[in-house]
Model the fold of this input.
Amino acid sequence: MSEKRSLWEYANPRKFMGLSGTLLPWVAISGGALLLIGLIWGFFFTPDDYRQGSTVKIIYLHVPSALMAINAWFMMLVASLIWLIRRHHVSALAARAAAPVGVAMTVIALVTGAIWGQPMWGTWWVWDPRLTSFLILFLFYLGYIALWSAIENDDTAADLTSVLAIVGSVFAVLSRYAVNFWNQGLHQGASLSMDKEENVADIFYYPLLVAIAAFILIFVALVLLRTRTEIRARQLRAYMARERMQ
Amino acid sequence: MIALLDRDIKLAIRAGGGFGLGLAFFLIVVVLVPFSVGPKSDLLAIIAPGILWLGALLACLLSLDRIFALDYEDGSLDLLATSPLPMEAIVSIKALAHFLTTAVPLVLATPLFGVMLNLPAEGFVWVMISLAVGTPALSVIGTFGAALTVGLKRGGLLLSILVLPLYVPTLIFGAEVARRGTLGMDIQTPLLMLAGITFATIALLPFASAAVIRINLR
Amino acid sequence: MMVDLGDYAVPVISAYISSIVILTVLIWASLSRSAKVKRELEEFESKRKSNG
Amino acid sequence: MVLKVSDLAVSRGGVLVLEGLNFTLKRGNALILRGPNGSGKTTLLRTLAGLQPAVAGRIEAEQDDIAFATHSDGLKPTLTVRENLTFWAHIFGSNHIDEAVDAFALQSLLNRSAGALSAGQKRRLGLARLMISGRPLWILDEPTVSLDKESVARFAETVKLHLSKGGAALLATHIDLGFEADVFDVSPFKAKPTDLPFLDEVML
Done:
C-alpha cells in the first residue's frame, strides 16, 4: 500500500460503490440519531423566546434546512465543475442525485418559514427577501431537475445541466441582491428574524448546532444512497443500450 | 454575420409570426389586465409600469423557442456549425435578431399600451428607456435557454421553466426603473444595475450558449 | 411529558409534522428507487450470466 | 492528402459504434462509405465534420476545408432559391452563385420560393450549396436521396468536376454513382461490446 493514492480514485464508479457502501450505514445512522437528539432537545428542553414565544422552536428545522438548501446547490455546482473539467461520471451523477434532496430542503425551509411567519406577520406568505430568494432557488432546482429528466443521453444531460448549474449560480446570487433591493421600503425590516444572531442565545444555539449536524449527515447519506442508485441505473441503461445494438 | 442577421429578420417578416406574435401577446396582457383588476384609473396608473414590463417579458418568453427550433429541424444549424462563423457569433446574432424582431416592436408599441393603462405622462419615457435597456438581456438570456432545449420534443414548457428564474433580476431592476421613473423618484441605482446586467449577459452568456449548442449538436 | 407551547402550539407542531413528513417522503422515495434499480440490475446480470 | 483517419473510434449516444478505422482520402479522389443502416456512417461523417468529438484516434484534416451536407438541406421555404443560395454564399465569404446555379440547372427556379420546390429540386439546391462553399473536401450523407435518375447523373457529374479541380469527396450512399471511387465498408469495424459497459469502461 505504499503507492500514492489520490482522492480522485474514488471518482472511479467501482471504487465509489465500495467506499460509499461501507460509509452509508454509519452516516445514515449517526445522522438519524443526531436528528432525534437535536429535535427532542430543541422541542422539549428549550425555553420559549420572550418575544417569539414557542415559535422559536421552529428554528431547529428552518435554519438547518435553509442552510442545506443552499449548500446542496453549492455541492451541485462543485460537482458540475468537476464533471466539466475532469469528466468523472460519479461527479455528474452525484450532482443529479443531490438535486431532489436540495428541493426537499428548500421546501422544508419555505414551509417552516411560512408557518413561522403566519403568527409573526399575520399572513402565510410575505414577499420577504429571504423567503423570496428561497422561492427563486426552488425554481432553479425545478428547472435543473426538469432538464436532467428531459434529455435521454446521459453525457449530454450531464453537460447541459452542468452549464445550467454554473449560469444558474451566477443568476441566483444576482437574484439575491435584486430581491434585497426590490423589497427595501416595501416591507419594514423584519423586527423579528429567526436568523439574527442576537435571537440565538446559547440555550437555543447548542441544540441548533446538533440539528445542523444532523441535517448535514442526512444530506450526505441521501446523496450517497441516491448516487449509488444513479450509478446502478446508469449501468443498467448501458446494458440495455448494448442489448439493443446486438 | 450580417447575412445571418438579414436572413433571420427576413424569415421573421415572411413567416408573419415574427413581429406579430410578440405584439399580439403584449396586447392580450394589456387588454385583459383592466378586465381582471377593475377599470379604476388610479389603480391602473399605479400598476401600469409593472404590467407593461410583465407583458413585454411574457411576449419575449413566448417567442424564444423559435430562435433555434426551425434551424435545428431543417438542418441549417448543423450547416452553420460547420461554416466559418464561430458558434459564439451565431448565437449572438440569433439573440440580436430576436431582440430586433420581438423586443424592438414591443418598445415602440409601449406608448400606445401605456395610454390604455392610464400610465402617467412622466412614465412613458422611463418605461421605454427601461425596456430598451433591459430587453436585450431578455433576448440573450432567452437565447441561452433556447440553446439548452434545442432538439427536445416538448421543449417549450421546459424552456419557460428554465428561463423563468433567470429573468428575475432583469425584471426586478427593469420594472423598478419604470416604477420609480413614473413616480419621479431617483432611478440611478436600478438603471445602472439593469444596464450592468444587459452588458454582462451580452458579453458572457454567448459563450455558454455556444457551448450548449455544440453539446446539443453532437 | 408535554411542553406548554402556549398560543403557538398549532404552528409549531404543524411545522414539525410537515418537515418530518417531507423528510420521510424523500427518504422513502430514495430507498424504494434504490431497491428497485438494484433489483433490476441484479436480474439483468443474472440473466446475462445464465445466457452465457 | 486532405483527410487522414487513423485508429478512429466514434460513438453515438454514449455507445461506441465504430472503432479502429483507418483510411486516407487524397485530392482528386472520392471515397464511398458503405454499410447497413445504423452501422454508424452518419455518426462517422458528423465526427469528421467536427460536429462531435472522436472517442479515440486521430483525424488529420483542416476543418476549414470541409463542407458538410446532411439528409436535410437547411433550406428556408419562405426564401427564394436565390436568397437561400446567396445567404450561404455570404456565410462562406463569397458572392458567386452562378457557377453552382449552372451546375445544378437552377436558373429557371431562381425566383421561386424554396418551399414550392419538389423534393428533388430541393436536394439539388442543397447540393448547390456545397459548390458555393468553395471548400475542397465534401462530406456528403446520402446525397442522392429523393433524386431521380437524371439528377443523380447530374450530381455525379458535379462531383467528378469537383474532383478534377483538385477537390475530394467522402460520401455515404447505397447506390452506384457511376464514377470511379474507392469503397470503404464500415461493417468490419463495428465496435465490439465490452463485458461491463459502464462500471469498468469508465476508469480514471
About this structure: The domain at 3-189 of chain D is CATH 3.40.50.300 (Rossmann fold). The first helix of chain D runs from residue 41 to 48.
